[in-house]
Amino acid sequence: MTSTPQKPSTPTRAGLPLPERQKLNDLETQEWLDSLAYVMADAGDDRAAQLLEDLDHYAYFHGAPILFKQNTPYINTIDVEKQPTYPGDIEMERKIRNIIRWNAVAMVVRANKKSDGIGGHLATYASSAELLEVGFNHFFRGHGAAENRDLVFFQGHASPGVYSRSFLEGRFDAATLDRFRRELSKEGEGLSSYPHPWLMPHYWEFPTVSMGLGPIQAIYQARFIKYLENRGLKKAGDAKVWAFLGDGEMDEPQSIGALRFAAYENLDNIVFVLNANLQRLDGPVRANSKVIQEFEALFRGAGWNVLKVVWDGKWDELLQRDYNGTIVKRFELLVDGESQRYAAFGGKELREKFFNTPELQALIEGWSDADLELLNRGGHDVNKVYAAYKSAVEHKGSPTVIIARTIKGYGLGESAQARNVAHQVKKLDFTSLKNLRTALELPLSDDQVEHLEYYHPGADSPEVKYALARREALGGFVPERVVDYPRLEVPGAEFYEEYAKGSGEREVSTTMAIVQVMSKLLRDKNLGRYVVPIVPDEARTFGMDALVPRIGIYSPRGQTYTPVDSGSLMAYKEAKDGQMLEEGITEDGAMASFIAAGTAYANHGVPTIPFYVYYSMFGMQRIGDLVWAAADQRTKGFLVGATAGRTTLAGEGLQHQDGNSLLQAYVVPNLKVYDPAFAYEIAVIVEEGIKKMYVENQDIFYYVTVENENYVQLPMPEPKEETYQGIIKGMYRLKKSAYSGKLQAQLLASGPSMPAALEAVKLLEGYGVAADLWSVTSYKELHQDAVLTQRENMLHPLAEPKVSYVAGLLSKENAPGVLVSVSDYVKLGADGLNGHLDRKLWTLGTDGFGRSEAREELRDFFEVDAKHIVVATLYALLRDKKIKADVVAKAIAEYGIDPERLAPVFR
After folding, report:
1. Closest to 216 in 3D by CA, of 399, 58, 37, 69
2. DSSP of 522-549, one letter per residue?
């Protein structure tokens, strides 16, 4: 039991005069400090920490007002006495850094001289050279390290420094550096502005320059490594995920949104290196406070191991002489705006403004301004950086963040170093370049400096040999993207045969159809183990809850409790080798998991097939930037927009009903977009998708919309092979009219609009119209083929014009009559075909905001139900002069359509 504090038998100190009371307090404090020092010396730091924790608990239990502190003092986390010996040749590494620094500057400045305004960044790499080079020389493990290979997310604006290191290593020549940001050069392959795997597929692995996306992706990549290891898909190792981030970048919600998740998952395989150069694009990050302390509180509160690298080794001399803690107290008063002035204006400013008391001035007695200028920030001291990195990789049980204080534009002179304009600097004048050359101690003449010549010491130089030896010891080059994975065996047609038969009289939603396909794939002996179902806390909504007891939800802890539904067939099951990723309410997190699973074929040689199933409205518009990042890094897999369509999701209303996502998905170049209406269409899309992505290794991924409305699933029309190809190409004839009316029409329908179109076919017969029905699975596929055909014809004017797939299907000879399309999405998707056909396509769609209503009323409101399809068809016939206007007017009146009501797009 905790003992109760006893009152002293003698009078308390409260009655003593203030001087005596203070004297007693000081004596008592010293006795406690001496006792603690004894414990530390005799029993060690861990025992001292435990004792302090016990005292803290005791005081709190008995009512002492313990002040909660989120921060440690504004000094380095690792004491100088515990700093390990640096394992490398410090002087050699300094020379290598100097070479890389020069070439990074020369590359950007040359590019802008050749093409003014081409851009590029100097200041970010200048601030992070030491952070990166310590990693390159001693920590980042390449592909040769096998299961221990690290994944590195580079800060996007630092790309010139990474390219310059590759130049030193012999991976790029000078001509390649000259093609920085000139990727369309006829002289050879160029260098992308930032890390872009799509543009440099053998080099970059992760796109990071859309700030905020790197941190969340890195966390979920680290989690997916644990997932693969716990499921036995990857040999367990000691691989780390390194993410280099900017302090300004941390204002993005995605940067910090998954911090607690990383701690909850015990991701001790991730290291954030936060480059705190105190400046963002336009100026200071937090001029009136200390951003490093802000980050420390944030990460400590989220459960991270925090290592601060604030001051370099020169400060240690002063700190060790400062017995009264005067400098530490001055550090606490420092704000970042003040700190930037010292970096910009040097020793004189530091002497006058920082060492501004007699006590502080006494500590620097005899120091010149030049001596003071050697007082640098910790992120530029390789000894401090190495100590932090070593501590980080050895830490177990939680993620680590290293917050390193640096100077933006470090070494670039008065025009850039620590200036508000540093981020935008792309050029340096001749004097600045000469000064930089001199500071870097490079053997370049003034003429070479003026002409911005690159410096390479030669393949046999000590610098190059050292750099290559370090990379060889660490398993090869970084960054390097290597695609080497076992090709999968795709199930044959018999696997999908049940879907081709239709559902008979049973009504089934397409959401249930794709879950059934996924469930069947999970049982496949060849593919099953590679399927990764991902859901953001909506498994029951999508009918995926039946998968939970069978495959389990992944949890690094397993299941440490008995679920409330234990014993039932649908019991909630978590397991260390669970296959489903149930991400909670986070579309961003779930999308980051999709990217991690969809790039595992390249990152780990494991061809996992992610199926990310989510509310379609919470897809493209909420996670669009991550979808673009997925495209850039050649992600594979299936995005499944469930409960899709503007009118299929009854009752939910404006923010839930999706009529936009197909259009938003259209703009992603390598994203295949499908809106299937039937189960057999889904089966064909999944079969073809797995074959293209994981057998033919096409760098594409899929967005498939499915909805929750139950209706009869029709059988696959004959001939099946022709239908199969039509599904993939985007369109096929579902039903040819058996009616012999003189008037003819072609109805194009997709997804949840299909039942209304089927009904409209019958209603049109009452007006003497024979309507064929076409299933459009992908307007994007149709439109892209039409645009490419148009381009082909334009560039070959002397050749016989080619006919696009959709134009051939809907030619007057093959499909006579008027053309009318109906979709549960905005009209613009189908409207894209106009101009590519031999006559006008009349379109119906769901432009506008959603409503909370039942499906029938919603379809009437958006004018996409059967009666509006009929009216649109009759009006098209009127415009073709096939019928009289009174026929259309009569239909409008009979169906009770108010011709004066406001269009749904304005309501």
Report:
1. 399
2. HH-TTTGGGEEEEESS-TTTTT-GGGHH
